Fold this sequence. Notes:
With 260 residues, the chain is an alpha+beta fold. The protein folds into 2 domains: 21-112; 119-258, Sandwich (Jelly Rolls). 34% of the residues lie in helices and 27% in strands. The protein has helices at 18-73, 75-78, 85-104, 109-117; strands spanning 121-126, 139-141, 151-154, 157-160, 164-176, 184-191, 198-205, 217-229, 234-239, 253-258. The strands form 2 sheets. It has a 5-stranded antiparallel beta sheet with strand order 2-1-10-5-8, with no helix packed on it. A hairpin with a 6-residue loop joins β6 (184-191) and β7. It is elongated and about 125 Å long. The relative contact order is 0.13.
Amino acid sequence: MNEPYSPTTPRPISTSSPSTMKMFMCFLSVFIIAQFIGTVLFCLYLHMKLDKVELEMNLQEDYLFLRKIQKCRKPEGAGSSFLDCKEIINRLENLLIKDVNVNTDGARPEKQKDDRQQPISAHLMGFKNSTKSVSVLQWQKTGYAPTSKLISYEGGKLKVEKEGLYYIYSQVSFCTKPVPGAPFTVFVYLNLPSESDRLLLKGQDTHSSSSSRVYCALQSTHLGGVFELRQGDVVFVNVTDSTQVNYDHGNTYFGMFKLY
């Protein structure tokens, strides 16, 4: 008996589930990102390590060079066949010359540093250039107390070229009249072109009551104070009667110096 033919049913092809595929792709992405980050961190570490090694090599080279210089300075090292002391000394001289050339180019920073360290001050002694009464006392520079370039003098007045806190001082010696009268007054003014002069210091001394046989009863008034001055400010000294001022050496003077 013939049996009916029936074709065999094909087996279904097994396929991965979508969730498994998604997990695999996530794992692969995380692995790639972690590998990239690790590579970057390793490159940074290697770069820092190479810089450190290079720095240590430079320091070691400098140390060896200094050791060679020290050995060449010794009598036994100068004649050693292992050291070329002449070449080492030439290298040292070239380095020193190069350093000097860098410091002396352009604005000469060493000279500017010396200028900044010089005190900003001026000290003047009294100078009589007229027998008549003057409105502003006149002064002259002294060799033992040079005036800074940042303080200029003209016409009895001191002008500051740099703002700051200054100590201003003056002493005026004078001869009193035999007959008592009005007090002898000394003024220190700040000259202001756009307005009236501002009084900074004032000192008074009464005339002595000495007899008429005394030609000059010498007295003095000293003033001093700290003031904030701007660039371009001008300071001068005035008295009630300039004909009585005594200009002997050390008796009458005027000056200032910058505190900071």
